[in-house]
Design goal:
alpha+beta; twelve-stranded mixed beta sheet; two-stranded antiparallel sheet
Length: 842
């Protein structure tokens, strides 16, 4: 929910817009050509009776597209193939895609260019697909050869091409996400299902993507650049999830024949059908296969379905762990894909070690075809392994040891309970097994019951259930085990976080409420560990990088205990063999460190606005007053939100603005004492968002609480992002509005946070190290703009407070500098480092 705090200069509550249905209908009615295309598609389908089951074979032969159509001289098929869709599902999907994309594109680029994009995508996709089938058929590639004698119909290639072309009009964040989703979906259907229309849809999307570059031209909103740290996690998780979803898709869709359809044999194991069981058991020579079939028949229904999907579901859980940056998920994903690679290699080895005999009944399988069929499913595993290894640094969130031990005990307890239940109930139903089950038989059979159905087939069938209750026990033993394990693993990923010890984060938050510096709330961010004073009245947040323990600001807790915490933390670091470094600390901590014989240097300048007497009057506040007035004229209001509770329309625009900012820099986001979207997702952090009457977000700021005696007495500016908007004074407007709002609440001050590598010239002669830092600040100015930010904050007539770095040994300065650089840029790649150097030099 939005905060109830009101800002005098602008209302807080979001304006009530029209209902979603009315807005959607208004948008659709402004795209008459799109509506006409959709109506024509359905009218033709209804008149010709193709909605339910698609066009007849004769219609497909005459008007459909494929290599066979070109052999028959039906050159017109590249256009006429769009007249019908192959069944009601294809009609619905094509309609939704056209409405979602066509409405927006028609209004933006006009009717004729939209129609041109659709025509180019449909025709170009058909030509590319037919060309690929022709080449594959000549090379006798099994998949493409198998579809070379057929035609298919559908308008989805035009819709796919239009959708990918339209991504050029999106922000960098959504351009990347939508393209990845669309291309992954098109590739999944083409490579797993593999019908002609699936290949044509993929080719149409590629043609549309290329054509969109020319149609949209310079209207593209910034370049995509490298994804942020959080976005990289999402993209890798999607790659892992697509493999699992593709394998599951082959079970749902009839006649999946794509080159990766055999990947299903590693992850998804469909249940035996009655016909398969009957045919297998009809031949007395296949007695062992018949027992396997009967065992599979006992798993028909929910148990067989979920047990068959267990490996794919495990991959989906791992993907969720990867999205959250869990190192354990990274290891599990790596091990699982390496296991599947090894399984394929073992199967191939067994085949070539024991080749098919010459007297094999029927046609003898070709060795080359067998080898190729083994290589196809393992290709995705290899690609996934490469991606995981290349992005390892993005998955650094470790599961606390206590959580890991708890999960191990949870797995062991589940195994014991399920195993005991199988043995106990199995003995009660021993006469419902073939052969009659003894305790030893049940114990030896238990591991096989816990395996997914496809993997269990490797071990044969020791016990075959014949009675109804035995079949239930046979199926639900493994099902219960996998459901419990998958739920537990998912819970482990959801609750894991990095702390020094169990409950450390909660203890730190309790001490933080007693008091700290303007930056102390940053100690709650991910990546910090905590040291606590023996008296439990003060704490220090730190992170160890390269043997240097770098603190996040001052000690926090009871005011009287903070100075002594400096010495206590220094002793703690000495005991662990670390070099301590108090970073971005106040004058008080600097003095305490100097009493220990340490040195200090200024690294930033905090800018503080005392609120009780704040008034935006006088010439020096002209820029601020102008921003407030212009916002009112433009209908822009300042709205308070907690980011986790903000409406999707607000939160997604904030994400877009942030990702655009990262993409425009071409460099990774800085961390440590500079927040990102991850730190915004906190119910105690307040966001002030500039929103116009149409709901468009023009800028956002976030504010961290500064506590004293359990209550926030001040607020610190952290996250600042402005959108691509004509309203130039959005930051002045937001900061001024926040100041007025906090003043009305009774807050004592507002900190605009420290400007790194920038400081106020107080007339003192700087030392050599201070001169080096000043030079570094000037050098990095074209890249990160710290000094420009410092100059911007001067508009608010702040009180300046220096922030220092205190360190015990000048000889350790190179190591300390490296540690701080890695703290701010933990995910800097070599390519980004080279780009950074080029920008600095340039």
């Amino acid at each position: 929910m939005a905060d109830t705090v009101e800002i005098p200069s602008s209302p807080v509550a979001p304006s009530k817009l029209r209902s979603v249905a009315t807005a959607v209908w208004a948008a659709i009615t402004h795209a008459p050509v799109t509506l006409g295309l959709v109506a024509a598609l359905w009218i033709v389908g209804i008149v010709r009776g193709t909605i339910a089951h698609g066009p007849s074979e004769g219609v497909v032969e005459k008007w459909g597209v494929g290599l066979q159509a070109f052999r028959d001289g039906h050159w017109w098929s590249v256009v006429t193939s769009a007249m019908y869709c192959g069944g009601v599902a294809n009609y619905v999907n094509t309609t939704l895609l056209l409405l979602v994309v066509g409405v927006a594109v028609e209004r933006r680029i006009g009717v004729w260019r939209m129609l041109g994009l659709m025509l180019v995508s449909q025709v170009g996709g058909a030509l590319l697909a037919v060309g690929a089938i022709w080449l594959g058929a000549r090379a006798e590639e099994d998949w493409l050869f198998s579809i070379s004698n057929y035609n298919e119909m559908g308008a989805s290639p035009a819709a796919a091409g239009l959708a990918l072309a339209a991504t050029f009009g999106l922000s960098a964040l959504w351009r990347r996400r939508v393209r990845l989703l669309l291309i992954a979906g098109l590739l999944t259907w083409a490579l797993y299902v593999g019908h002609i229309i699936d290949l044509q849809r993929l080719c149409g999307g590629v043609v549309g993507l290329v054509a969109g570059l020319f149609v949209f031209g310079r209207a593209v909103k910034g370049r995509i650049g490298a994804p942020s740290h959080a976005e990289t996690r999402v993209l890798v998780a999607m790659v892992v999830a697509v493999g699992a979803l593709g394998a599951m898709l082959t079970v749902v869709v009839d006649y999946a024949i794509g080159p990766l359809s055999t990947y299903r044999d590693l992850l998804v194991f469909p249940a035996w059908t009655e016909e398969e069981v009957r045919n297998t058991c009809a031949n007395p020579e296949f007695a062992l296969d018949c027992r396997r079939a009967l065992a599979g028949d006992a798993l028909r229904g929910l148990p067989g379905l979920l047990l068959g999907l267990a490996p794919a579901l495990l991959l989906l859980v791992i993907a969720e762990g990867l999205r959250r940056g869990r190192r354990l998920a990274w290891w599990l994903g790596l091990v699982m894909n390496l296991f599947m690679i090894g399984l394929v290699a073992w199967a191939a080895y067994q085949y070539f070690r024991h080749p098919v005999p010459d007297d094999y009944p029927g046609s003898k399988p070709d060795a080359g075809w067998i080898l190729f069929s083994y290589l196809e499913p393992v290709l995705l595993c290899v690609v996934t392994v490469v991606i995981l290894l290349a992005t390892r640094r993005h998955f650094e969130v470790r599961v606390p040891r206590t959580n890991l031990v708890g999960f191990a005990l949870y797995v062991l307890g589940t195994l014991l309970v399920v195993g005991f239940g199988y043995l106990w109930i199995g003995q009660l139903l021993s006469d419902e097994f073939d052969p009659e089950a003894s305790a030893a038989d049940l114990l030896l059979d238990l591991p096989v019951r816990l395996l997914p159905t496809g993997y269990a087939d490797f071990f044969g069938v020791r016990l075959l259930p014949t009675g109804h209750l035995a079949k239930l026990l046979f199926g639900y033993t493994g099902l219960v085990f996998w459901v419990v394990i998958l739920v537990g693993l998912l819970a482990l990923f959801l609750r894991s976080r990095t702390t020094s010890e169990p409950g450390a984060a909660d203890r730190a938050r309790a001490l933080l409420a007693r008091g700290g510096s303007n930056l102390s709330y940053m100690t709650t961010w991910e990546g910090n560990d905590y040291w606590f004073a023996a008296t439990d009245d003060a704490a220090v947040a730190y992170r160890v990088i390269g043997g240097v323990a770098v603190t996040t600001g001052d000690p926090f807790g009871e005011p009287a205990a903070r100075r002594s915490a400096v010495a206590g933390f220094a002793e703690f670091c000495q005991d662990n063999g670390w070099t301590p470094c108090f970073y971005s600390v106040t004058e008080d901590v600097r003095r305490a460190a100097e009493e220990l014989g340490w040195s200090a240097v200024q690294v930033a300048e905090d800018t503080v606005l005392p609120l009780p007497e704040l008034k935006f009057s006088g010439k020096k506040w002209q820029d601020v007053r102008t921003a407030l007035n212009n916002a009112g004229k433009a209908g822009i209001t300042a709205q308070w939100w907690r980011f986790p509770e903000a409406p999707l329309s607000i939160s997604e625009q904030i994400r877009e603005i942030s990702e655009d900012w990262v993409a425009d820099k071409g460099l990774p986001e800085m961390g440590f004492t500079l927040g990102s979207l991850t730190e915004l997702d906190d119910p105690r952090v307040r966001c002030l968002v500039a929103v116009d009457a149409e709901g468009r977000v023009h800028g956002v700021t976030s504010w961290l609480p500064v506590y004293r005696d359990g209550e926030p007495v001040g607020w610190t500016l952290d996250f600042m992002r402005r959108g691509t908007t004509d309203f130039r004074g959005v930051m002045e407007f937001l900061i001024a509005s926040a100041a007025l709002g906090f003043k009305e609440e009774g807050a004592e001050f507002l900190s605009l946070s420290g400007a790194p590598l920038a400081r106020l010239d107080r007339g003192d002669e700087p030392g050599a190290l201070q001169k080096l830092l000043d030079f570094t600040g000037r050098t990095l100015e074209p890249v990160y703009g710290f000094r420009s930010l410092f100059a911007f904050k001067a508009k608010f007539q702040p009180v300046y407070q220096p922030m220092f770095m205190a360190y015990p040994d000048p000889a350790a300065l190179p190591t300390i500098a490296s540690a701080i650089g890695r703290a701010y840029l933990p995910h800097l790649t070599p390519a980004q480092g080279l780009r950074l150097v080029r920008k600095v030099v340039g």
